[in-house]
Fold WD repeat-containing protein 3.
Amino acid sequence: MGLTKQYLRYVHEGSFNIIASPNCNVVFVTLKNQEGRFLATGASEDVIIWDLRLAEKALLLPGEKHEVCQLSPNHDSSQLAVAYTNGSLKTFSLDTTDVISTFTGHKSAITVIQYDPLGHRLATGSKDTDIVLWDVVAECGLHRLSGHKGVITDIRFMSQPGHHFVVSSAKDTFVKIWDADTGDCFKTMAAHLTEVWGVCVMREDSYLISGSNDAELKVWNVRDRSDIDTEDKDKLSEQLNQLLLSEDEPDLTSPLHCDKAGSILRSGKGRVHTMVNDKHRQILCCHGNDNVVDLFYFCTKDESSTRCRKRLRKLKKKEKYESPLHCDKAGSILRSGKGRVHTMVNDKHRQILCCHGNDNVVDLFYFCTKDESSTRCRKRLRKLKKKEKKLQEEQMEVVEENPVDPDDTEGGKGKPELVDVVKRLPTIKTASKTGKIKSVDVILGGGGEIRLALLLNNNSLELHSLSLGGSTDSVRHLRSIHAQGHHSEVRALAFSSDNLALVSACASQVKIWNRPSLSCLRTIDTGSYALSVCFVPGDRHVLVGTKDGRLLIVDIGAGEILEDIPAHSQELWSVAMLPDQIQVVTGGGDKSVKLWQLELVSVNREADEETKDVSRSHKVLSLLHTRTLKLEEQVLCARVSPDSKLLAVSLLDTTVKIFFLDTFKFFISLYGHKLPVLSLDMSYDSTLIATGSGDRTVKVWGLDYGDCHKSLLAHEDSVTGVTFVPKTHYFFTTSKDGRVKQWDADNFERIVTLHGHNGEVHALVVSPSGQHVASSGSDRTIRLYSRTEEVLFFISLYGHKLPVLSLDMSYDSTLIATGSGDRTVKVWGLDYGDCHKSLLAHEDSVTGVTFVPKTHYFFTTSKDGRVKQWDADNFERIVTLHIQVVTGGGDKSVKLWQLELVSVNREADEETKDVSRSHKVLSLLHTRTLKLEEQVLCARVSPDSKLLAVSLLDTTVKIFFLDTFKFFISLYGHKLPVLSLDMSYDSTLIATGSGDRTVKVWGLDYGDCHKSLLAHEDSVTGVTFVPKTHYFFTTSKDGRVKQWDADNFERIVTLHGHNGEVHALVVSPSGQHVASSSWGASKQAELLMECLATMKEYEVECKEMTAMGKPPPSLPPIMKALNVTSPRDYLMTVLSRIRSTELEEVLLVLSLSQVTDLLTHLSSLLDSSHHRCELVIRVAVFLVRIHHGPLTASKELLPVLQRLEQLASRRVEEIRDVVGYNLHTMYFLQRELEEKESVQMFLDATLEKRTKDKKKRKRENAKKTAIISL
């Protein structure tokens, strides 16, 4: 029997309220040939380009599912690279907003992306510690740079004549330089003691700057090795002397030479958060934990020389006498001791240096004499000469130190230092007092104007400007973008009565939005944290409930608060209008629910300033408190039924109490949730109430008797919102898992899961017409969904008594055939889901059903070892096609069969007794057999009929040539057996699903594993490719069906619908339909009820046969199919097959009469010696606890309950005795082995137990001491 329902689909219409995501950076882009006007920001999964002049959205680059984490434009801003948290990367054209290319190469979120100066290559760094170089033109990967041991924090491209390099920093405290052409790392700089958060390359790639947790930015002078060789002899000799002071071997083969030029001290506090430079690499910008941005200007060579000459000239005028000593830094000595230096002494000859730190280590150093130093120097230079043949002999000679005279500038010997190169610019502070800087970007204009964009964590942007040569007064705050969104997360939403306006409330603001345009109409400051909101009839006023218990009446037109009412003494969690539209109900943390009456009160207007005439009084809206309901716990939510008869209140003690609205008299309590109910709502006809709790469940109750119709495990985290669609029994739920789901309260099925938030969902609202749904979350977005005319169809097929093990659909997608463990095959119609025919196909479970292409013929396989062919039109075993069939079984063999037509005589006609002539029917001819070493789990032939793939019980997949059965290749990698496999239509890929929860994609050319995907949370039971594509579906015991792309190894979608293990999956030949089968809790409940009914019928038949003096009848067919010998074993088999997590849900479905029958059978199970008595006792205890009242009120059941109690107590004592006996036997064996081997066994467990016992004794002693002191 099939059940078909149809619904109208809700689609995502748009997102608003978000200006910029704090988890993404901001970058300047060039549009319409205007530079410095447009700013690109990440907005959840989208990218918004803002026009800073008009403070409007100029462009939107839509995303799909994952949140944007990094942005980077190319050199001419024609393209924008966008990185996502799933490790993928897309490049967009800013002219057409089209996706140019997509790259997938990282396992986790991308932390940094960077274009090279020409825009031909792209570098990405991720949390997986890898760097990938991409060719943007060829749209392929070039190199994977692996070497860092921490998260990649920054990447920069650097060029030297004939070479291209990549500089990277990471949390492993290292800065690495890579060759972009070969992908090799040739230099690692370990100058920082903590994480390196950023690197920049400045002034024609001659300076490298790195920032860490301290206030010091380290500056490195970067030069090509060939340039060093052409320098003067004195400079080279000085560098060689510095190398000789170090114990490390000098790197003379590196193409780059990096020496420390100095440090830059920044004024910001804390670690470096962002360090960027302009595209000309002259402006360096960085910020820390505070709201201060430091700017530095790197002068050109001419400017540096001019600053150097001026500085030296000032020094010459300032010094009145020549210093008698000249001191310059010769180098550093690293000691092995830890901590600070405590003592540092030398001998009287001043040759031995001794020092020690915090540990017990003393470092000794010997200062050689001049002769010894010369000898060591000659040996060292001799080694250098052998290693580096490029250095000439005269350059290797060590000369005496000849320092440069700083006063001798006329000869040109004075060279610019770092202080001459770097010029500190005025610092910039944020204009916002509440926001904190998360990202910055800088751009240098043609007129020397510097523009700086700031992204703040309060969902706002700021644009600042200063002149390159100006002072602090030249810093200007040009513009802020903050009105288009809330400064904090939106906590409450409400629709107007005409569905055209939407109100949202956050920590300190209330905003009114235009739904069609998604634009902000009005912003009102509330002054306190808003928790709830609703429109007043007329849509001109809004009621706002705050965290301090105040109830605000806001005038939308005037944009001001009319009245501030101290409604509650604690949080005001709930505000709602009553159906009569003149009363308001509020619930707060002060354990009270209050009713209010809307009224108009007269207020005198202020006197006119010019005429001093007081106008007549006018009326404004106010609230009159009418009644108060006091409760025992804090109120989390309060709602009134649409018929204005009942008041439902959710309390902090996990209960929902329902009162009569007119008298506040208690009606009923709803128990069942394990955590407090955060949201509730009632249906339009006041017959149902849905409650969402922190225990992740949604329960649907009847308002007539308060009975729980269904408990749904709706989400993976706390349910934060439940709202019914007006005039239907459909309702929406939201959760902290970021999902928005629609449900049907009549059949308790999930209709659809909407594209949710990238974080927790805080609020949900449905428009009065039911046409629109809005939700808000921690990702700062308000998402709007609208109902379309597209119809969703759901067909459920019921009828099998045991799980469906295989299914398939016909080529024209009109029929579906299912094979079950009950030995039957059912043929269904896909139009209405009706069962055309039920065939008792085999003598054992049907394990496979497959349609023949372009026909309605199908084959079935079974555990009885037989293969049968059927006609789905007349339901007979007749076909007309000649094809081959491959079968694989547990007898360690794979067999090939040939279909052939054989002549068969028809049966004689019953009336004429005439035997008709013979006719031809299809039969199977066994052709070949392939013997293997292990049991065969799955066998498939490639679409080109060349290869045979077989999965074995030893976790391997072996591939053979089909024509000769010659071995081709083995696929190794799975840790558990491969349960399913399939090959792509072009015979180039094979996907395997295993019990280890992974799906691996292999190439059929060399058998290499392209990708290993952790696809599910339980064993993968099915893998099937979509015809003529590289997409494939997977099913698992976790109850999910997922679609994957075998080319870029991404999950496309996750299909929901099953509440239990998914056993079978099939894709129609057209690829338009997918069918899957499972065995959920409802099906298990049906099997248990069928078991009780079958046992009852069989007992009646046995009594009748015994009364007639005949032997007992044979077991029913269902018992024979399960290979049981008695009804008692049949019941035990059914109970054992119920999943432990679904057992209680299955037992709740049983009626009272079925519970009575089950308890009677449970006593007989306990009376017999059975190894599953724990399961039987668990079932009995749960049933007695749930149905305690009716069971104890029945005099007929009292003997049964007493007998159950006696048997359960006896069985528990027996189990306890067995466990105790085994435990002490193990202790005895342990002592014997320890005495024999002279070693203590289970040492770790023993020590852990002793530690726990010691802690337990300490707690007990502390309790005793506390009691005595009291």
About this structure: The chain has a mean pLDDT of 84. The longest helix spans residues 1198-1237. Residues 412 and 573 are 77 Å apart (CA to CA). DSSP finds 14 helices and 83 strands in the chain.
